Every structure is written in C-alpha cells, then in structure tokens.
Amino acid sequence: MNMGMIMKLLAERKALRTRERWARPHLEAYQSQALHLLREYAYAHSPFYQLFHKGLYDAPLQELPVLTKAMLMEHFDDLVTDRSIRLEDVKAYVANRRGAELFLGRYFVNSTSGTSGRPGLFLANRDEWLATLAGALFRVFAWAGIKLKLTHPLKMAQITSTNPSHMSAQGANTMGTKWMPIMQLAASEPVRTLVDRLNAWQPEAVIAYASMLRILAEEQLAGRLEITPRSVLSGSEVLTQETRRRAVQAWGNVLFNEYGSTDGGGLGAECDKHHGLHLQEDLVIAEVVDRDNHPVPVGVYGDKLLVTVLGSRAQPLIRYEMDDSLRLSSDLCPCGRPFTLIDDIQGRVHEILSFRGVGGGNVNVHPIVFHNIMDTLPVNGWQVVQEVDGLHVLLSSARGTLDEKKLADTVQQALAKQGAVVPRIEIQKVFSIPQTASGKTPLVKSNLPSFSP
Fold this sequence. Notes:
Layout: H1 3-19, H2 24-45, H3 47-52, H4 69-74, H5 76-79, H6 87-95, E1 107-111, E2 121-125, H7 126-143, E3 156-160, H8 167-175, E4 182-186, H9 191-201, E5 205-209, H10 210-221, E6 231-235, H11 241-251, E7 255-261, E8 265-270, E9 277-279, E10 284-289, E11 304-309, E12 320-322, E13 325-329, E14 341-346, E15 353-356, E16 362-365, H12 368-374, E17 381-387, E18 390-396, H13 404-417, E19 425-430, E20 444-446
C-alpha cells in the first residue's frame, strides 16, 4: 500500500470513528441521505436499475424488488455503472490474474465460490475498496484492541484463503505494510505446517476462519502451538460457543467475532464489551426478513438477509439477498455506540473431518481442502460426506466431460498431503444434493459418531 492509500484509509477510519459517537437519530438521517445518493447514482448510470426499479424511483426501500446473485450475474453488464466493463473480460482477468494489477487499471475484483455452478463476481473502485477495508478491517481491528504504531510494527497472521480472487487475500495484500507485516497462510495447508510457521512468526494478532481457530486452539492446548496473540479475530464462518470456549481457554479473553462477506463487505463486529456484534449501519442497511421478504420482529431469526451497501457505486447492491439467518437484539451495548446489535447468526457451520493419521492419532482436515478441488468442477452442486466405509463425493448436474477417476485421485492426494490415512473414495452423480431437515445443504459433513477435535 502506498502512502496516498494509507492517508485515504486513515481519513476514512477517522470518519468511521466520528459516526460511532453519533446519536441514533443522526445515524438514521445519515443512512437516509446515503441511500438517496446511492439510488440516484444507480438510476443515472446502471441500465439494469433503470428497468428493475422503473416506476419505483421514489418508493421506500422496503417496496423495491429483491436482487439475487443469479440476477446480478445474469444482468452483470447492465448492472455495473461503467459501460466499459464486460463480464467475459472480468472472468478472463480473474482466470489470468498476475500480481497486484487491477482490472482495467482501476477495479478490485473479488469472487465468491458458490455451489450453484455460478460464482459471484464483485467489483470495487479504489475509493470503494479503501472504504471496505476501513470498515471490515481497520474498524474491527480497533474494536479488537489492535493498534498500529509507527514505532512498533504489529505482526499479524492470517489463516484463510490465499486465492488472489478472495476478499481475505486481497485485503491482506492491500493492508500489509512495514507497520503491519502480514503472514498469509492457506487454511488448506497441513496443520503441522501451520503450527511450525506460526511458532516461527509469533504473531501479535491472528485472523482465521472460525473452524480453523478451533483446530489451532486444540494445537495450543496440546502444547504443539506456542503463540501468545493479543487479539484473535474469527470471521467468514459461524463462531460456535464451543469454538469460542476453546479459543478463550487457549489464549485468554482476546477473541473477537466479526461478520462480513465478499458481496456485502464488513457487516458486523464485536467490541470489547462482547455483548453481541454491532451491525455497521453507517455502511449497510440490513433487513432481516422471512422467506417472503417480510421483516421479522427483533428477537426472531430471519430466513435471509437483504443488504443495501451504501457506498457501492461500481456495482450497486440494493436489497441484495444473502442466505444468512440473523437474530437482532433490542439491547444496547454498554459501549454506547448507536448501532443495532446482532444477537446471533445461524449460517453455515463448516464441518471439520477427522481421519486416522499416517503417524498415529487423528488428522483434522479443514473444509477448504475440499473447496479448492470441488469449486472448479463443471457441476451445479457438490457435497463431501464422510461415512464409515469412506468418503462419498456427490455431484449434481455435471456438465460436459468429468473424469471421475482423476477427481478421486486428486482428493486422495490432497488427503495424503494432510498426513491422513486415505479412505475409500466414491464419486456419485445425483439429481440434487440432499438437504437436511432444516433445508440446509452442507458442503462437507460427517456421518460418523461425534468427536471433539
């Protein structure tokens, strides 16, 4: 990050701090004005929104139609506000990305690894990207007690995805400076490799998937991992109470939960009062709704979330649908910030699979190991299920030619790299991926008796 970007980021962070001291009416007035400017820009520059909201330009937000990811990708070229952007060019850029070069020299591009066979692609110009980092990282860091000092570089470790198209990797690449050196580690690396590198690095702050923190906490409690971070941030997945308990047991009360997404940016974060997650309402308008897009009462879980990203301009997101289930709280946080609290999030809990280790004991394998393989397949859906007789890899609506033997070999090699005794692997083509009783379709699941990794 160059000095100009650092100064803009610091200015954005200062603005965020000011909003944290506002009274609730001031915040709501700001939201209203920011929403007006967003809609005005979208109607002036996006052919898609000109038609999608036709006749509704002055309607309240709650009366506007809902935007799904499928619609966003289908109408990509007309939805973006820069007429020089074409979806095929964005796809080619992502497929052939080299280094830190921006798309068209001015856009950051992040992708989501969807299981619908059609991942989402999200663009942000430099100003939008810095605003996203300020909210999703700098604000979260401050609330978690992570303070940057020019006289003392803060060593950070990030254990997520190192795919250059993923938001976590791009954020680390942008944020990493001599004042905050960041060691990026892939969550798909063998646990023993992660432990060795973290022990050598001795980070003062750690950011990781919730499921990865569970693994690292167990390594710390077993005495193999020996780090003393002052702050530990959990993100991208649901943080369960058991994972929180083990992390606090391993490192003390330094764990902070954050809630964000590639499409919505920084949505919520926990402050030092640990009273819930503050919904970042100066950055987004979030509607917790039922299946029919009707608002649910405070204290009740919604079926999904509709997000309006107030700063989005290159690719406006207005009432964008996310399948997260949130429950809002009527409580106020003792910290005094004006933001609504998220009481709980029911999202996808990524299941860690445990295998017998080649050297004895168990080897815990993070779901991203399977994501790295399965997300590239020409299928509409997939699921990896661990049974007593081995791994069952389910594929739905395969397109074109799929070499099943090559896929099985790739999975075997990935598990062998983790140090696991490789089980029998069966590839099954199915009409659709089976759902749980609650309607969820977990990507990685175990049907073996419960264990405590």
